[in-house]
Amino acid sequence: MFRGQQVVNALIIGTAAVLGVWIAAGGDRQGLIYGLIVAALVFGVMFVLPIGGADMPVVISLLNAFTGLAASATGF
Question: Exposed site from 31, 37, 51, 74, fewest CB < 10 Å?
């Protein structure tokens, strides 16, 4: 973990939340959705960046669980 990573993660999550509210409010959806996708990708990288190789199976199972939760939230 680098110095200030928690602040960067909080800024990314805040940006994603603002973009989500803006999308729901009916803004220019295509550009905002692309921005939300980029914010999610950057947060995903920042989320697993400080994790060492020995803990990688835990990270993989956690990300698989997040995928299942996201799929169930969409109704599949």
Answer: 74
pLDDT in tens, the chain (76 residues): 788 889 999 999 999 999 999 999 987 789 999 999 999 999 989 988 888 888 889 989 988 999 999 999 998 7
Q: Which two tokens stand for residue 19?
A: 């973009």
The DSSP letter of residue 75 is T
Structural domains counted in the chain: 1
Q: The domain containing residue 18 runs over which residues?
A: 5-74
Residue 19, CB-side half-sphere exposure with 13 Å CA sphere: 18
Contacts of 39 (CB under 8 A, 6+ apart): 12, 15, 16, 19
The first and second tokens of residue 40, run together, are: 């999610």
